[in-house]
Amino acid sequence: MMNKVVRVLLCFAFFGVSLANAEQYPSKVITIIVPYSAGGPTDTVARLVGKAMSGPLKTQMIIENVEGAGGTIAGTKAAGSAPDGYTLFLHHIGMSTAPALYRKLPFDPQKDFEPIGLIGDVPMTLVARKDFPAKDMKELIAYVKANKDKVNLANAGLGAASHLCGMLFMSALQTEFTTIPYKGTGPAMNDLLGGQVDFMCDQTTNTTSHIKAGKVKVYGVTTRKRVASLPDVPTLQESGLPGFEVAVWNGLYAPKNTPKAVIDTLAKALQQALTDPSLIQRFAELGTDVATKDRATPEALRAQLKSETEKWGPIIKKAGVYAD
Amino acid sequence: MDLLSNLGLGLATAVTPENLLYCLAGVFLGTLIGVLPGLGPTATIAMLLPVTFTLPPVSALIMLAGIYYGSQYGGSTTSILVNVPGEAASVVTTLDGYQMARQGRAGVALATSAISSFFAGTVATCLLALFAPPLAELALKFGPSEYFSLMVLGLLASVVLAQGSLLHAVGMVVLGLLLGLIGTDVNSGVRRFTFDVPQLADGIGFVVVAMGMFGLAEIIRNLGCEDCRSVEVPKITSLMPTREDWKRMVPSILRGTTIGSLLGILPGSGSILGAFAAYSIEKKISKHGAGFGKGMIEGVAAPESANNAGAQTSFIPMLTLGIPSNPVMALMVGAMIIQGISPGPSVMTDQPALFWGIIASMWIGNLFLIILNLPMIGMWVRIATVPYHHLFPTILVFCGIGVFSLKNTEFDIFFMAIFGLLGYLFTKLDCEPAPMLLAFILGPLMEEYLRRAMLLSRGDWTVFFTRPISATLLSLGLLAIIAASLPALVRKRDEAFRKD
C-alpha cells in the first residue's frame, strides 16, 4: 500500500518536474547550426540574430558551424537532432534548391523541419568588370546576346546564390554563355576586379563596397524595389526583364516534431529580435532587409520554402545541374 | 610626408594602452595555440569571434591579427620539438628543425626560427605600409593561367624537397595528387572517390593528413624503436646561435623573406608556397644544400622567414580589396562585417585609423613575439626531457582536439589515425611525406586553375605561353628541370669517361 502511494507520488513528482521544465523553456543554452564557415555572410546573420534573440529568450545562443557539401551535412545533422528546441538550424535560399541540386539528399527540407520564421532578404546585384563596354542594362543584354560565345559569367560555385542568379539570367535572356565556377565569392570577385571574367550576379553584401569604390560596374539590382543603400541603381525589372526577382532569404528552422509551444516561443523571440535597433542597423549595413513581423512566422517561412522550391526546381532541372 | 603622417596615425592608434594590451593578448594567445599541436588560428579565431562583438573594431582586429601571426610563430615550435606541423606553412620546418632538435640543437633551431620570423615580419610590415595598393594591383594581374603555371613551378620544386630516391619522390607526388582529387568537382559537382561518405564531399583536410603523416607516424616510429625515444636526452649544447650559425642563416633569411613576401600577396595558398619555395631554392643555392634534411640551420631560417613574411603580406588583398586570401583572412573579413565595417577598397580611405593602426600593431606584435619567445626557448627545450610515455599521449590528445576543432566532426580523427599508419608505412619504405603533402595541397588548386583557364580560353592551350607572366613562370620551371638534371648528366658523363 505504502509502496503504491510512494510510486504515485514519485510519478507526480516526475510529471511535475517535466511540466515545470516545459514551462521554463528555454532552460539551457540553445545551439544554432549554421551550414557555412564562421565569418561568412550566413554566419554573420546567425550571430547577429542569435545575439538579439538571446535577450527575449533569456538564454545564451551559440553558433555551431557545420561546413561542407553545400550545407547538406549541416542539414542532415540538424534534421537528426533532438526536437527539444535546443538545436535550431539557420539556412538561406539553399534550403529550397537542395532537393533539385542533390539527388541523394538525406533529408527533406519541407518535411523534416518545423519552420520558425524568415529572418531577412539580401538583394543581389548584377556587376561587371570596370572596363566592360556596355553602358546600361539594355546595352548589356544586347552585348551579351551578340557576344554569347565570348562573355564569361562568374559564380561562387554550384548552388551558390550567384549560380542561381546566373541561371535565372540566362533563362530570362533565353541564351546560354560560359559560366566560370569558383570556390566562393572571394576568388570570383578577385578575378572580376582583375578583369579575368566579365560579369557576375552576387549579393549586395559582397558587391556594395566595390560598387561604391568604382572598382566594378553595376547594372541592376534583382529585387522588385530599388535598394536603399544603392538608390541610383535600377532594378532589373525596370530595365526590361519582367519578373526577374532573386533575393537570398534566410530562415530559422527546428527539427521535425519540436513542440508547438516551443516553436511559438522561438517565433515570438525572433520577431522581437528583428525589432532590435542594433540588429536593424547592422542588417542595413550588410544590405539586408529585415523580415517584417508577419513574415517572421512559421506559416510565412513554410510558404516561402514551398514557393521557392517550386520556382527553382524546374530551372535547375532544365539546366541539368547537379551538385552530387 | 603622407606616409609619415599615416604611420603616425597608425602608431597613435596602436600604442594606446588598451590596444597594446589586445595586441599582447593576441600574440600570446597565438603563440599558445601555435604551440599546442593541432589547434590552429582558424579554429581559435572562429571561437573568439563572439568576443569581438563587444570590442571596438580596431582593438578586435588588432587582437585577431595578433593571433594569426602569433600562431605562425608558435607553430614552428611543435614542428621543431615533436615533428608535428600545426599548419601547412610549418611542414617544411619539420624537415630540418626536428633533425636539429634530435641532435640537441633544439634551442638554436627555435632561436633561429624566432629571429627569422621577427626579421621577416618587420620587412613585410614595411612593404605593407609602403606598397600595399600597388602590390594588390599586381596580384590582380594573376589570372587562372598564371596561377596554374605558378603551381607547376611549385610542384617541380617539390621533387627537389626529397632527399632520397627520385623515383620515390615522384611516386609520393603522384599519390598526393590522387589524394587531392577526392571530393566534389568544382565544375560539374560530381563526387569523386567519396564512396558516398558525405564527410568526404569536400575532400580530406590538409591538417588531418599533415598531423597523421608527420606527428602520429613519428610517434609510432618512436614507440617502435627503443633508441629513437631519446630517453638519454640529447645534450643541449647551446640555446643561442653561434657566430658560425649567424653567418649561415643571414643570407637564408634575406632570401626567405623576399620569396615569402612576394608569394604571400597572392590569394590562395601564397604563404604555403612561400615556405616550400624558400626551402627548395635554399637547398639549390646553399653551400650546405646536400645536408638538407639532416638538420641544417638554413633549412629552418629560410622557410620560417618566408612563412612569417607571407603571413603579413597576406593581409594586403584583405585590407586593400576586401578579398580574403586564406581561411583566417575570411574570418577577419567576417569580424569586420560584424563590426559594421564593409571590407573593401574603401577601408583605407574611410577608416585610416583602422588600416594604419593594424599595420603599426603588426610591427609592435612582432616585437612582443620576440621578447616573449626568446626567454621561453629554455623552457620549451626542456620538453624533450619529459619521459616519452608522458609526452606521446599528450601529443595524441592535443592532435585529436585540434583535428576535431576544425570541422567539429570525429570522422577527421579516424582519418588522422589512418594517415598516421600510412605515414609509418612510408617511413619504413623510405618514402618521404613532404613531397606528397605539397602535391596534396597543390593538386586540387592546379586542377581548378587549369580547368578555369581552359574554360576562359575556350580550350586553347596556348594561353599558358602567350600570357607573359605565365610564360615566364613556365620557363623558370623548365630551367629548374635543366638545372636539376645537369649535375646528373655531368656525373654520368664522368662515369662514362672513367669506364674508358
Describe this protein with a few key phrases.
heterodimer, A: 324 residues, alpha/beta, D-Maltodextrin-Binding Protein, domain 2, 2 domains, ten-stranded mixed β-sheet, 10 strands, globular, B: 500 residues, mainly alpha, 2 strands, 1% strand
Please characterize this protein's 3D structure.
The complex is a heterodimer of chains A (324) and B (500). Chain A is of the alpha/beta class. Chain A folds into two domains: 2-121 and 248-319, Bordetella uptake gene, domain 1 (D-Maltodextrin-Binding Protein, domain 2, 3-Layer(aba) Sandwich), CATH 3.40.190; 123-221, D-Maltodextrin-Binding Protein, domain 2 (3-Layer(aba) Sandwich). Chain A has eleven helices and ten strands. Chain A has helices at 2-23, 41-57, 72-79, 94-101, 137-146, 161-173, 185-193, 204-212, 260-273, 277-285, 298-319, and strands at 30-34, 61-65, 87-91, 113-129, 152-155, 178-181, 199-203, 216-221, 247-255, 289-290. In chain A, strands 1, 2, 3, 4, 5, 6, 7, 8, 9 and 10 form a ten-stranded mixed β-sheet that branches. In chain A, helix 2 links the parallel strand 1 (30-34) and strand 2. In chain A, helix 2 packs across helix 9, helix 4 (94-101) runs parallel beside helix 11 and helix 6 crosses helix 11 (298-319). The longest helix of chain A has 22 residues, at 2-23. Chain B has 500 residues and is mainly α. Chain B has one domain (2-499). Chain B contains 22 helices and two strands. Chain B has a two-stranded antiparallel sheet with strand order 1-2. In chain B, helix 3 (41-52) packs antiparallel against helix 4 (57-82), helix 5 (91-102) packs antiparallel against helix 6 (106-140) and helix 9 (206-224) packs across helix 19 (411-428). Chain B starts with a helix and ends with a helix. The interface between A and B is large, with 59 and 52 residues.
